[in-house]
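Chapter summary example.
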Amino acid sequence: MNRFLNVGIIQQKIIYDTTENLKYIEEKVNALMSGYHKPELIVGVEGGIGYFTSQPIPGTITNYLCNIAKKNTEFTLFQVQCMK
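The structure predicted for these 84 residues follows.
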């Protein structure tokens, strides 16, 4: 079977402002999805949301990330986050 998985990777600087981190993730997802090769999986860096943000799962941040994914139904957004 000749099948390829197109993967997008978001590299970012982590700052204390969770809102800015989420805004950056959304901007980069939109940029990746506007390209010719649309990724089916997008991977973010560990702590991309912010190491300083503790949220339940599901919660407001997971809902935000789900809304980004729903706008672009061709891919799965996977954000690596460390657990405390």
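To summarize the output: Residues 7-79 form one domain.
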